[in-house]
Amino acid sequence: MAGNSDLDIDILEKIAGTIKQLSIESIQKASSGHPGIL
């Protein structure tokens, strides 16, 4: 199980980074192009 934990953490970090990037992009789009959403 110890070998799998490193892989799981790496995958979770990649997913978290992707979600963070998408959040930043959506916030930038919302604030620049669609202020009504905020």
TrEMBL record:
Domain of life from the UniProt record: Bacteria
Protein name: Transketolase
